[in-house]
């Protein structure tokens, strides 16, 4: 119902778009007791994100959205978004380390929040749009981006604590390549299976005694892949996110 | 259902009243990562607000409430409330400026939050009372006070950044006079139309291509004016707010 | 539905358990604008709590849970939990005093939040598990532990401000003994009546003109006592709390 909201109340729509763009920054600021409005202080990023938001929702005849239905462009944007994700995670881990020395749980939490923030606060982002689905949240049913961000946060924390015998830039490079390749593969093949499905099923069986896990993971993967089709405008605010992040990245 | 809550749980009722009184302070503190309980440190204000809350809800035979059904008294209280609103906005803008230099978006956000805080967190204030209406919030359907506070925050931020060629005290004076006159007019004529309805419709048509905006704005105006009838006790906690702010102001 | 959640999503279950364990710490940190993730920095406590969480939910044949169905063990754990409650309240009061000098309302609020945090944020803890019951919260229907923590916070604040002519360690001793005795009595007799029921009814009648209070308090007491039966696994996350706190205490 993003289109309906955009017609009824541009302010709520803008606020919701900003939350899904800068959610990671807001959430990690809250966790470290820093001003969550700090993202507004970077005027350029906010202006760029706002202009993309405006073009997406109010452009006559949906020209902007149609451009992004062009597949190579979508691949490019999705790839760039994954690159910024790596940067966010490393920034979050380093930031947390500067607050709490050697608190590896805090580092994981903040890195995860910074990287996957928009997903983790999706309940409150929906509340702004007047939607409230308490029975679903990203912790109950983790989508693939949230999962992969969690793994990334754990890896970078291990590297930061020098438990992983690998140089930092190598890890960043490998993780980014993995993210981009996985994302592009998922978009091209329209595959719904998470690459971790088998691993998860095994772990779930070993540690938590789950039997029905495999089928569940698969259906969940189907859902998340539907949600990430980039310019399927009425579905959700997902694609705004990607587009804005690309813009923000270009300026940096 | 404020009366029912007051009978069932005085604590929740008191907490909800405090939130609607000091919501602006709490919200702007959260946004700037300052202790949101700071308002409790000003013992006098809290005690005054609490005593008014007590008189409103538990006074025998509703004497207190009947006094405020007297029209001139209601006008006086409503006017005073609008005066404190101006003070809050300017305080919020100045406070934000002391944290982030020249971040005009932060200044607008904090000024708005400080001035209209009770409205913006109304969802959570309702949650305390056991009510949950996710489909309505002040961002989706901005009521008139929230709108006018947003405009005020923008104006004072522009003045603070020296984009507006007007002295500060002149702007405060003009804005306060505008607020009081509009409020008193709305109360006297029981008019439901927001003074900005026509302007909003034009802007909405120009920028967001809204067609059905005018009728929508009008019905919304009707709702907000119903809500602000000062001593209509069972409707909501709105009037507690006005009454307490008057008291708080008198002590300052 | 804690068991169902634990099968569907171990992450959400773990997060919910951590919130109910460290909720007081998180809430009081938020109130004083300190990093709410600070509790993760104490690795030992979190690891212990996590291991208990794991044993409770994923132990084969429920061995761990059956052990705690043994009454003397349950009494011991419940008693220890009450002892830590006293410590938490005094720590909260002292901490608040170090931030705001002589702000007795802040001291009460922070002490209360630290001592009864898990209960006060129960709505959000439920949200993590995908449950949302807006019509019930701890402010609307205070359970016995939340009530007694509020009284404790008031007492320790009075003592801290030297209004109570009693030494600090004496007050701690008396309050802890009172807590433990009341809790054990309630568990042994399966009594549902809160010890304050009569006092509350009188106060409610005097100040708030409640007539139907007594019957209401009693039914509420019945509910809260049901919830606190220690190893009634499917009911709620209540017992995890007790168990983990015992572990956390032993390490200190």
From TrEMBL, chains A, B, C:
Which compartment or compartments is the protein found in? Answer: Endoplasmic reticulum membrane
Q: Which GO terms describe its molecular function?
A: identical protein binding; potassium channel activity
UniProt signal peptide: none
Instruction: Could you list this entry's UniProt keywords, alphabetically sorted.
Output: Endoplasmic reticulum, Ion channel, Ion transport, Membrane, Potassium, Potassium channel, Potassium transport, Transmembrane, Transmembrane helix, Transport
Q: How does it sit in the membrane?
A: Multi-pass membrane protein
Q: Which family does it belong to?
A: Belongs to the TMEM38 family.
List the biased-composition ranges (Basic residues).
242-252
Region (Disordered): which ranges? 218-252
Which cellular component terms (GO) are annotated to the entry? endoplasmic reticulum membrane
Function comment: Intracellular monovalent cation channel required for maintenance of rapid intracellular calcium release. Acts as a potassium counter-ion channel that functions in synchronization with calcium release from intracellular stores. Activated by increased cytosolic Ca(2+) levels.
The protein's name is Trimeric intracellular cation channel type B
Membrane-traversing stretches: 12-32, 170-188
* Quaternary assembly: Homotrimer; conformation seems to be controled by binding to diacylglycerol (DAG).
What reaction gets catalysed by this protein? K(+)(in) = K(+)(out)
């Amino acid at each position: 119902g993003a289109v309906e909201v955009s017609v009824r109340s541009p302010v709520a729509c803008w606020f919701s778009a900003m939350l899904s763009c800068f959610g990671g920054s807001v959430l990690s600021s809250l966790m470290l007791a820093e001003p969550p409005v700090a993202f507004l202080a970077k005027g350029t990023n906010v202006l760029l994100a706002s202009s993309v938001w405006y073009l997406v929702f109010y452009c006559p005849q949906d020209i902007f959205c149609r451009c992004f239905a062009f597949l190579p462009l979508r691949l490019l944007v999705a790839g760039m978004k994954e690159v910024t994700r790596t940067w966010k995670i490393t920034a979050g881990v380093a930031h947390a380390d500067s607050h709490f020395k050697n608190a590896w749980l805090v580092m994981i939490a903040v890195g995860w929040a910074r990287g996957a923030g928009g997903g983790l606060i999706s309940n409150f982002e929906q509340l702004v749009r007047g939607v409230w689905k308490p029975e679903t949240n990203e912790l109950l049913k983790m989508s693939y981006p949230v999962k992969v961000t969690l793994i990334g946060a754990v890896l970078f924390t291990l590297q930061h604590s020098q438990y992983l015998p690998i140089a930092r830039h190598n890890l960043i490079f490998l993780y980014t390549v993995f993210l981009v390749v996985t994302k592009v593969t998922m978009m091209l093949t329209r595959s719904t299976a998470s690459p971790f499905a088998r691993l998860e099923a095994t772990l779930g069986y070993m540690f938590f005694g789950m039997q029905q896990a495999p089928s569940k993971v698969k259906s969940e993967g189907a859902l998340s892949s539907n949600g990430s089709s980039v310019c399927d405008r009425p579905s959700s605010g997902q694609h705004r996110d990607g587009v804005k992040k690309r813009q923000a990245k270009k300026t940096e």
